[in-house]
Design goal:
By secondary structure, the chain is an alpha+beta fold. Helices cover 15% and strands 37% of the residues.
Length: 232
């Protein structure tokens, strides 16, 4: 009913890019895989792409049902904007869009590859560590070294912004990053945690196809998180 009464038989007569989000509460990512299989079954997968994004829910800019999650999600509007641009170039000029995201289905769960070169799609991948690990144990007043390793799928863009949120409360501040010879990017920071407790610092990154740092459109975002446990 809500999908216009269409028959999901995969018999598309046009080029299609499907955007799927791993944290979607309303349209599960397994639905995207189901339709991808229907398209393949009728031999139309050459006209089809599926881009699977992590850290994104059904609502792009905010979550009306779970507002407390907005600090832990990305706005995927820019990915949709780039999908429309790529679809237009595909239809009008015959320019092939980036490959579909590579993933496996395990117990009905979509498991994406951990490296950008293997994953595909257009979303950047970021891995954040605190003192070299996923979880750092420190005492209050001690400084923590945060390091973000960022990868971008080949020929899908470059990193145009990096932002740190040291307390995990959604208060992001802009930071610098640098490109490495292997095509990846790195961003480093340090922070002193004065209060005891468990903190979840995060870094938000954005890539853009043409490297346009001064324009807000068609940015593909992702988040990386670590855990810092502070004792007296």
């Amino acid at each position: 009913m809500v999908s216009g009464g269409a028959g999901w038989n995969g018999k598309i007569n046009y080029k299609t890019i499907m955007v799927v989000n791993l944290l979607d509460l309303d349209a599960f990512p397994s639905d995207g895989d189901y339709y991808r299989e229907r398209v393949k079954a009728v031999g139309r997968d050459g006209d089809f792409r599926i881009w699977v994004n992590e850290n994104a829910n059904h609502h792009a800019s905010s979550d009306a049902y779970f507002p407390y999650l907005t600090n832990r999600l990305i706005n995927y509007t820019g990915i949709l904007e780039q999908a429309f641009r790529d679809l237009s170039a595909w239809v009008e000029d015959g320019v092939e869009p980036p490959d579909s995201t590579s993933y496996n289905v395990v117990d009905s769960q979509i498991i994406v590859a951990k490296e950008a070169a293997a994953r595909g799609g257009i979303q950047p991948i970021v891995k954040l560590t605190a003192n070299g690990t996923a979880c750092a144990n420190i005492t209050s007043g001690e400084s923590v070294n945060l390091s973000a390793c960022i990868q971008v799928p080949q020929e899908t863009g470059v990193i145009v912004s990096v932002e740190w949120d040291f307390l995990g409360d959604g208060d992001f501040v802009a930071a610098d990053s640098g490109a490495l010879p292997d095509g990846s990017w790195v961003a480093n920071a340090s922070y002193i945690y004065k209060e005891e407790g468990t903190w979840f610092p995060q870094v938000r990154v954005a890539s853009q196809r043409n490297g346009e740092r001064d324009k807000p459109f068609a940015r593909a975002y992702d988040l990386g998180r670590a855990r810092v446990m502070v004792s007296k």
